[in-house]
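Blinded run. Sample ID left blank on purpose so nobody reads anything into the name before looking at the predicted structure. Input follows.
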Amino acid sequence: MSPFFSMRGDVVVRKIAVFSFIIAAAIIAAAMLAFFLLSQRDSMLPFSAINEMQVGEREIGVLFLGDSAFVLKTSGHVVIIDPSSKISRDAAKSLGKIDAVLITHEHSDHFSSEATLDLYRESGCMIIVNEGAYGNLRTLVEEKNLVLMRPGENVSINGIFIESVEANHSAVSPLMYVVTMDGLTILHASDSGFTRSLGKFAGKIDFAILPIGSPSPTASPSEALKMAKAALPKKIVMMHGSSSEYSEFRNLMANSGLNITIEEVEAHKPRKISF
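Blinded prediction complete.
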């Protein structure tokens, strides 16, 4: 065969190889982009779902995001408690209206200044904080939108009544919150251990969100049982614990003689609870 034709054949083969590589790379890039977009869409679904959820009187929509992070929706209000960095600005857009963000304390599994600012900038919501988180936000959030709360204080915001309770935890003036909105009273107990202050609310709590254990050094199934006995809520949702600690708490409650329902809530799966 002529060297000319042999060389020409090699060039053609190389061109085909390069073209094939480009096509393969384009297909892979398109697949990766599609996967990314689908992942982004799927990550927004829980937030869109609770935004679209119809919540009536004596009902609450609950979106648990892990650790102590919750989105709570009643018939007229939406509050977020301890979001940490679990809600992006895009997720905040999917949520729509946000009335208030509440921070129990400054530990990173409860509070991120950057994520809290994203929620504030997207929604213009009120930010309720303990002393430890306040210093991170006081120069970044408008004074009219930032409320520093200390144990035993209360504030009314847009039809929401918020009371702070001293928490038993290693932070700068950590808090639990008792929130009343649209006829329902909700206790969010951070990752606190038991405190006698909860006795003030005995029988007044519709819905208690209780920490069950790890990684908190103060929360445990037995401490959560003490909280339940003190506050006597109608219903409980568990948070901030391992599956074995959740099982232990269920057993403790079953043998406690308390007439309190434990509502099972899975992370990232919004559900409606009625009273």
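Unblinding after everyone has recorded impressions. The chain is about 35% helix and 25% strand.
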